[in-house]
Amino acid sequence: MARAIGDLVAEAEAEADANLELRRSWNVAPTSDVPVVLERVLDGAAVRQVHVARWGLVPGWAKDSSVGVRAFNARSETLLEKPTFRDAVLSRRCAVPMEGYYEWQAGPGGTRKPYFVRRADGRLHWFAGLYEWWADPALSAGDPNRWLLSASVITLASPEPESADPLLRRLGELHDRMPLPLAGEDLDAWLAPGTLSATKALEALGCALGNAYAAAAGWIIEPANPAVGNVRHDGPWLLDAEAEPGNETEAVLF
After folding, report:
1. To 10 degrees, the CA torsion angle through 14, 15, 19, 24?
2. What's its EC (predicted)?
3. Pairing status of strand 112-119 against strand 101-106
4. What is the reported pTM?
5. φ, ψ for residue 170, nearest 5 deg
6. Of 211 and 15, which is predicted with more confidence?
7. Nearest CA to 90 among 197, 186, 187, 193?
């Protein structure tokens, strides 16, 4: 996320803790910190908030946080079947804002080429996500570092490569999965606080899935720099496929 925290909070129409810090980054790997937007009921009213979470969901029952390494994405088709995600989809839903995301397209001879997917209007993507709070059993109840907030991004099948729409066809050629976009009423329904029944959760998910390809129609796919494959590389030059490595900074947020 290369935007200032104030810009993110304004676009999310949310509140943020005064001490919330988001460092600019153009390259993020699983287990790094990411911003998430969620809603909680405070004094009887739903309040939308921005938090920072570790990318890779750690369910409350996990013995240690290493579970999150394998849970940075959640397939929409099996959310209620997988123990890691099925509790969160009922009561801990969030949106993960991004300015864009990288995807690697496979080529001949095992080659791969990176691309950056962003919105044509320059606004943030809002992708469906799940979040969890996990208590580290090795730390005491009063330790401020005991609780870990983590999150996962929900994905769906990409459009068929034979799609009549050029952009959707390109998305299908790029990769067989894509993050699930949220907009308008779909975003509001997904973030609505409270515990849903499995049926209601599937309804909210189904509406977002039904509108996903329409939302993707406003995206742009551009070549990215192959250096993005190394998380030690960071900077706006990663969006230029021909650029030479620039100043290196640690990647922490997207």
Report:
1. 10
2. 3.4.-.-
3. antiparallel
4. 0.91
5. -65, -40
6. 211
7. 197
